[in-house]
Design goal:
Layout (H helix, E strand, L loop, with lengths): L5 H4 L11 E5 L4 H13 L5 E4 L8 H6 L4 H5 L2 E3 L2 H4 L5 E5 L9 E3 L1 H13 L4 E5 L8 H5 L3 E3 L12 H14 L21 H17 L8 H15 L4 H15 L6
Parallel strand pairs: 1-2, 1-6, 2-3, 4-6, 4-7, 5-7
Helix pairs in contact: 2-8, 6-8, 9-10, 9-11
Length: about 260
């Protein structure tokens, strides 16, 4: 649908409310990435992250489908793993229609939009995971998220293409009211700041090493599932940086090792 007004659209990014990062995990077609970029820019969402695109990056097909959102593609960040793509984020939502047997809060698109506004007003960096076009997110990707974003649609025909899903979620954020608009927000104390994803991963690494030394995993087949369950717990509870430091101290005390600072 035509109607872009370049005079109105060239706003300073600093004038716009902060949006969540959009993370496309193993996207397949370059055209789909380009259409996602177009949908994002329609809604003033500008941080695009790609996890190991199937056809490589950059992709000329993406630029052709972006319909003018080329700068967003040029600034897209590419990662080898989902964990790396969310490492600097504090709160991550995974788009999926299924709970995957994991205990997580479930948001609609509208509720997620409001939650992102609220968290960004407090200085929390947010991101939204979208899975590959044909299969969706894998369980290990969903385990990295704090909560699930599910879009209730006609159960008889609920399939969305990737760009449709990105547009719907981005538009819900754009339409959401920010309850903190016009109010001055006191910055959180350092010890109450949410932990970065990479800080929690470092904690997981320390824990896994000790569990392996103490033969916690009874079989190689059992190990991935147990680690996923533990990781899901850490990401679900909304840990702060102080929580992470405390657990590092507990592990070091139990093992008789001091952790290097």
């Amino acid at each position: 649908m035509a109607g872009t007004n370049s005079a109105l659209g060239r706003q300073d990014e600093g004038d716009l409310p902060k949006a969540a990062s959009v993370i496309l995990v193993h996207p397949q077609l370059g055209e789909n990435i380009g259409m996602c970029a177009r949908a994002m820019l329609n809604c003033a969402v500008t941080d695009l992250r790609l996890v190991k695109p199937r056809d490589g990056w950059p992709n000329p097909d993406a630029e052709a489908a972006a319909a003018g959102a080329v700068a967003l593609l040029e600034n897209a960040k590419v990662y080898e793993t989902t964990a790396a793509a969310v490492a600097d984020l504090d709160f991550v939502l995974a788009t999926t229609a299924r709970g995957r047997g994991m205990v997580k809060d479930v948001y609609t698109a509208e509720a997620a939009g409001r939650e992102i506004h609220t968290r960004h007003a407090r200085g929390v960096d947010c991101g939204i995971l979208f899975g590959p076009e044909r299969t969706g997110l894998e369980n290990d990707d969903v385990a990295l998220a704090d909560a699930i974003l599910s879009i209730p649609l006609n159960p008889g025909f609920s399939s969305l293409n990737l760009a449709q899903a990105v547009l719907l979620v981005s538009y819900s954020w754009l339409c959401a009211d920010n309850p903190f608009a016009g109010e001055e927000i006191a910055p959180a104390l350092d010890e109450n700041e949410p932990a970065k994803k990479n800080e929690i991963e470092n904690l997981m690494t320390q824990l896994q090493e000790e569990l392996e030394k103490n033969r916690f995993f009874r079989s190689p087949e059992q190990k991935p599932t147990l680690l996923r369950n533990i990781r899901n717990f850490f990401f679900r509870v909304g840990m702060t940086r102080q929580d992470v430091r405390t657990l590092h101290g507990i592990f070091s005390s139990l093992t008789g090792k001091r952790r290097d600072k």
